[in-house]
Design goal:
It is a single chain. The radius of gyration is 19 Å and the shape is elongated. With about 230 residues, it is mostly helical. It folds into two domains: about 10-65, Arc Repressor Mutant, subunit A, CATH 1.10.10; about 75-225, Tetracycline Repressor, domain 2 (Orthogonal Bundle), CATH 1.10.357. The protein is built from nine helices and no strands. The chain has helices at about 10-30, 35-40, 60-65, 65-90, 95-110, 115-125, 140-155, 165-190, 200-225.
Length: about 230
């Protein structure tokens, strides 16, 4: 399972549009980007085009997409990858507590595959916060949260949790929120120094994600009963 994969029958030009939009939406947000930016592959105020960037005509972009539709396609693709990976973990023949640890190890590695997609996911999440504290989440995000809640309930059924039912939601927010905020920091660090070699920035991101995984596992152990 990969994060943000595209259909195999897409043309090269359509893949260019998808990848250009993903990078630009992650860096600047939907409202700050035009179809011309997406076609060009960068905003004029950026110091230089991305080294691996490509361009297409603005007319071709407009023929295929509105900005909002393109954003939704990126988000839906990312959530398909995330939920598919969670489904793989849930289907394994192991105790729920081991599935929880697998989730905390493997989801950060999946997100590491596409840091631009991570930037889009996080940037587009926070503007959807309502004043009552709830979120207008897309269906993919809702499914993800539901699967995590189900997994934690299974861990509790195995009597491996130290928490009562009222505190399980707090556990989910600690683990899920900790991953989300840490991935935001990873993405910021990844994009902060665009003049550094790309491989060096990827290595730094990987080191940060390894630290995130270790921290999440330590947090989970604090919620679990000792064997």
């Amino acid at each position: 399972m990969t994060l943000c994969s595209v259909p195999s029958d897409w043309s090269i030009k359509r893949r260019v549009i998808f990848n250009n939009a993903k990078r630009l939406f992650a860096l600047f947000g939907l409202s700050q980007i035009t179809l011309e930016d997406i076609a060009r592959g960068y905003r004029p105020e950026e110091q230089s085009p991305p080294p691996d960037g490509c361009s297409v005509s603005k007319a071709y972009v407009g023929m295929l997409y509105k900005k909002e539709d393109l954003l939704r396609e990126i988000l839906d693709s990312a959530w398909v990858g995330i939920n598919g990976k969670i489904d793989q973990i849930l289907a394994r023949d192991m105790q729920a507590v081991d599935k929880l640890r697998s989730f905390l190890r493997e989801i950060p590695l999946l997100l590491e595959e596409d840091l631009d997609a991570v930037g889009v996911l996080i940037r587009e999440r926070y503007p959807s916060c309502r004043f009552d504290g709830s979120f207008c989440e897309c269906s993919g995000a809702q499914r993800c949260r539901g699967k995590i809640e189900k997994l934690i309930a299974q861990v509790a059924k195995e009597e491996k949790l130290r928490l009562d039912a009222k505190r399980r939601r707090a556990m989910m927010h600690c683990l899920y929120g900790g991953m989300e905020h840490a991935m935001l920091d990873v993405y910021i660090q990844y994009t902060r120094h665009p003049d550094e070699p790309h491989i060096q920035r990827l290595l730094q991101a990987h080191q940060s994600i390894k630290a995130l995984t270790d921290t999440l596992l330590d947090m989970a152990d604090g919620f679990l009963r000792k064997s």
